[in-house]
Design a protein that fits this description.
The chain is about 35% helix and about 20% strand. It has 8 helices and 11 strands. Strands 2-1-4-6-7 form a 5-stranded parallel β-sheet, with helices on both faces. The protein has a two-stranded parallel ribbon with strand order 3-5. A two-stranded antiparallel ribbon has the order 8-11.
Length: about 250
């Protein structure tokens, strides 16, 4: 069973690549969270979680959903983390998650994909993004080979900076950085409601056909990067930046 959480398509893309090779079933954690689906999951094959990297760990909304979901069957757990740079020492927290769930930790693979965190970083234009995706293929195929053979993924090297990022920076990320307060729509908005549809936390609503953001945001960037007219901004941080949203291929 392959389960993914994805804001702008990177993790969805990798999950679909794994599905093509393994012919395994795929579930969207986004949809399960959005629809408050807490039903149990049964899998005869190993569990493969494909998740983005938020401040050098997996998203809290994803880990919370995993913790609150009952899994039956195969308890081997692979983690594939997409990132713009690196995953830090995310493995430490994934091992803790597995211990709490009774999973057998089968490792974590780092897949470098195009940066999407427009709230803080520059986002690549399409030509550069396409090159990054192409360059990720060997890493994806390497992880797939391990999964199909049911072999543990190769461990990532961990240094002091990795520990610092995952242990120290991450806890400050959510209370001090993650907020929807700076999101707003411009006159380019066509009132299509795609931002409402894309938000996994139901944090965006249309108020008199204008998007409004609530307090339950995880900074997945689905709304701002998925807007078809680029009508959403995040304060001044997103001005003039390209949007990155990887559609289904």
């Amino acid at each position: 069973m392959i389960l993914y959480f994805s804001g702008t398509g990177n993790s969805r893309y990798v999950a679909e690549k794994i599905k093509e090779a393994t012919h395994d079933d795929v579930l969207s954690i986004n949809k399960r969270i959005k629809t408050s689906d807490h039903s149990s999951i049964t899998s005869q094959k190993p569990l493969v979680f494909v998740l983005p990297t938020y401040a050098w760990r997996i998203p809290r909304v994803a880990s919370s959903h995993i913790l609150n979901t009952t899994f039956h069957g195969n308890q081997k757990a692979y983690f594939i983390m997409t990132c713009g740079d690196e995953i830090g020492n995310a493995a430490h927290y994934l091992k803790k998650l597995c211990k709490e769930k009774g999973f057998e930790f089968y490792g974590v693979a780092q897949i470098i994909m195009p940066e999407n965190y427009i709230a803080l970083f520059d986002v690549p234009a399409k030509p550069e993004a396409d090159q990054i995706i192409e360059a990720a293929e060997p890493s994806i195929q390497s992880a797939i080979a391990k999964i199909m053979a049911e072999q543990p993924l190769d461990p990532c090297g961990i240094n002091f900076q990795d520990n610092l990022k995952s242990h120290v920076v991450n806890p400050f990320f959510y209370p001090f950085v993650v907020s929807a307060n700076k999101f707003y729509s411009t006159d380019a908005c066509i009132h299509c409601g795609k931002c409402v549809k894309l938000c996994p936390l139901n944090n965006v609503v249309l108020d008199h056909q204008v998007p409004k953001w609530g307090k339950n945001c995880t900074h997945c960037m689905a709304c701002i990067c998925g807007c078809p007219t680029e009508a959403i901004e995040y304060g001044k941080a997103s001005h003039g930046k390209p949007r990155y949203y990887l559609e289904n291929k």
